[in-house]
Write a structure and sequence with these properties.
heterodimer; A: 318 residues; alpha/beta; Rossmann fold; 2 domains; 13 helices; 14 strands; B: 274 residues; five-stranded parallel sheet; 10 helices; globular
Chain lengths: 318, 274
């Protein structure tokens, strides 16, 4: 297998903000003492007047962003996913979601691949927390190229939005010319298949593709859907896959409760889609310190685990 | 303007009595400051609530919504008849302010501690756009128990937000009792000045003094101003004054009649002096 081209979604975020900042004077950026990690520092250096360093005070950051949005600004507020959601849930709930504020929360370091910092910093509930809020749009981009496109869509589309990416470099999955076909709330079929569908988001999309290849070599044809938008969920593609393949597996770097898997499950159940189904994700536990690959292996989130899950599911009676 | 204040108090009592829920104490202590802002000091236009050059008022202590609603209605932001349907289903006026559907409401509040941060955002936008509007945020004294208030206090001073004036409704009471017993706040003046704020302290029921303080705050350069309003919870209704039981309990029928009688007398006395 040829070596994959890698790029960091965080860099893509920082670079895209920088580009958009030149085109749109209304874009402002806030960070809570993590601008070097979230890469908002690129914007900060070029447009210091439109960058607000808020210090380690995330609650103030979110409500301030809402105030800026009320004056026509398009604020991007950034921090690690743990601090950008759980810590400031009430501020997001009232000042952003309830108020339908045009605030964009972009979180980095989502999921367990944060690695050695441990469970305190491994955010596995953010998609659930954001998804449950009315008016909120929720993204989990899968690579740097898609991140670029999603940041552009966030800037150009009105309303409260949340996006999360991981810390690590990620294989590039999209070519530049494919990006125009990425739209809010529309899943992307990255690999076609007829036996089973793997619906993944964020860092798990690449693992799903790897699983697709491994399964193919054993005669299993697996479809891979990149569900970059968790809310609004692309219900049509979910139901289509339920009809066209013999089972669905969801994979996310997130708790199995409340995220992509739950969202897909809700659609299937409420539409009488009688289909074999399995959620893959963190199984309702806090994880621990370790290398990302070690954590993925231990907590069941890599291509070999997906292959095993798919095979087990296919043996299950319909 | 004292007459307007009495009129607002009557609205508040009427609204809470009809709604059979709500917060009389903290609504009544805030009346003079909100009246002074909307009827004298602020640049605003009820016919154009989204005018980008308007001064903004944010009621961080959202439970005093009845006072703000009554003032907005009397200014002409919406029909005074709306006040009769506070907290009712299928009606506009929610229990706490919400910015999307009520003309004149700048920020959705009710969960305490957010409003000053929101005001900072509006003030930062004003600086960025080189607009000369001013931002006013009213904070409750009990509300300053919230840590976010102090995050916002630090940020406003760090960013030298001299286009921001905060007003502290210092009525010394919160739900569980006296502010100093629940979680000591004193010395309030030193706290705010140590955070880098220009601090003024006045009688929060003296409209002339409130206006003087608001004007003084306009002239302050390079730092935000906090006006500590020395107020009485439940002000204007004798049996509600300094009575913690009326924080979040509306008047019953007898109390309603008694309160309206007192306020009618106050109104007649003021009218006689005109």
């Amino acid at each position: 297998m040829s070596k994959k081209e890698m790029a960091n979604p965080r860099d893509a975020y920082g670079e895209t903000l920088l580009e958009l900042g030149g085109k749109n004077q209304n874009i402002v950026v806030l960070d809570a003492d993590l601008s070097k990690s979230t890469k908002t520092i690129l914007f900060a250096k070029k447009y210091p007047d439109r960058f607000f360093e808020m210090g380690i005070a995330e609650a103030n950051m979110i409500s301030t962003a809402a105030g800026l949005a009320s004056c026509g600004k398009i604020p991007f507020a950034s921090s690690f996913a743990v601090f950008a959601t759980g810590r400031v849930y009430d501020q997001i709930r009232i000042d952003v979601a309830y108020s339908e504020a045009n605030v964009k929360i972009f979180a980095t370091h989502g999921g367990i691949s944060v690695g050695k910092d441990g469970a305190s910093h491994q955010m596995i509930e953010d998609l659930a927390l954001m998804r449950v809020l009315p008016n909120m749009t929720v993204f989990a981009p899968s690579d740097a190229a898609q991140t670029r496109r999603i940041v552009e869509l966030m800037a150009s589309t009105k309303g409260p939005m949340y996006a999360r990416v991981g810390r690590a470099n990620a294989p590039v999955l999209y070519k530049k010319e494919d990006l125009k076909d990425i739209h809010i709330g529309k899943g992307v079929i990255l690999r076609d298949g007829s036996d089973i569908t793997i619906i993944a988001c964020g860092t798990m999309v690449d693992q799903a593709i790897e699983a697709h290849e491994k399964l193919a070599s054993t005669g299993v044809s697996a479809r891979v859907v990149d569900m970059h938008t968790i809310k609004p969920l692309d219900e049509q593609i979910v139901l289509r896959c339920a009809k066209e393949t013999n089972g669905i597996v969801t994979v996310e770097e997130h708790s199995v409760i409340g995220g992509l898997g739950s969202a897909v499950c809700e659609v299937l159940a409420e539409n009488n889609a009688h289909v074999r189904f399995k959620r893959m994700g963190v199984q309702d536990v806090f994880c621990e310190s370790g290398e990302p690959d070690e954590l993925f292996e231990k907590y069941g989130l890599n291509a070999p685990h997906i292959v095993r899950t798919v095979k087990a599911l296919m043996k299950r009676k319909k | 303007m004292d007459l307007i204040a009495v009129k607002i108090r009557k609205h508040v009592i009427e609204m809470l009595y009809r709604a059979k829920s709500g917060h009389p104490g903290g609504s009544l202590s805030a009346v003079e400051a909100i009246v002074a802002l909307y009827f004298h000091h602020m640049r605003h236009n009820p016919k154009d609530p989204k005018d980008p050059n308007r001064d903004r008022f944010i009621l961080s202590k959202g439970h005093a919504a009845p006072t703000l609603y009554a003032v907005l209605a009397e200014c002409g932001y919406f029909d005074v008849k709306e006040l009769l349907h506070l907290r009712e289903i299928n009606q506009m006026l929610q229990g706490h302010p919400v910015c999307m559907h009520i003309p004149g409401i700048e920020a959705s509040t009710g969960s305490l501690g957010h409003g000053l941060s929101f005001g900072n955002g509006v003030a930062l936008a004003g600086k960025l756009d080189k607009k000369d509007y001013r931002v006013y945020v009213m904070v409750g004294d009990g509300e300053t128990d919230e840590g976010q208030i102090w995050e916002a206090a630090a940020a406003a001073s760090h960013y030298k937000l001299d286009n921001l004036t905060a007003l502290l409704d210092r009525n010394f009471l919160q739900i569980d009792g006296k502010t100093e017993d629940v979680l000591r706040l004193e010395s309030v003046r030193e706290r705010w000045s140590s955070f880098g704020w220009n601090v003024l302290e006045i009688d929060g029921h003296d409209i002339e003094k409130i206006i003087d303080a608001l004007l003084a705050a306009n002239d302050q350069k390079n730092q935000p101003t906090m006006i500590i309003l020395d107020t009485v919870k439940g002000k204007g209704v004798s049996f509600m004054e300094n009575n913690v039981d009326f924080h979040g309990v509306p008047p019953n029928e007898m109390e309603y009649k008694l309160a309206m009688k007192e306020l009618d007398l106050a109104q007649q006395a003021l009218e006689a002096t005109l």
